[in-house]
Amino acid sequence: MQLIHWPESGGGSRVLAGEIEIADSFLQQARGLMFRRSLAEDSALVFQFDGEAKRDVHMLFVPFAIDALWVVENKVVATKRLKPWIGLGRAAADTLIELPAGAADDVAVGDRVALDES
Asked: Model-level pTM greater than 0.85?
């Protein structure tokens, strides 16, 4: 499975992450990246929800920076670089994606992202 990015401005798609972990249980979603030492360079943690609602991200017990994407129907509605230990972010989303810091530098609000199962 891969996470693919399509810029709103056009041009080709690119792979944001080739190793995808889906946080699909309550416990996985509550834990997120807490207590991990790092997030591999080509990986992403994806939280998929039943509908759009405000989604919070905190960096308590996360000792490394990440990029967070809030997505509604595959369209990026917010992005934020979160600092280790103290970062906070909140936006409405039906999908939340956490990537290593710098992986989403070229992702902007309005771009499209989607999981590709092939």
From this structure: yes
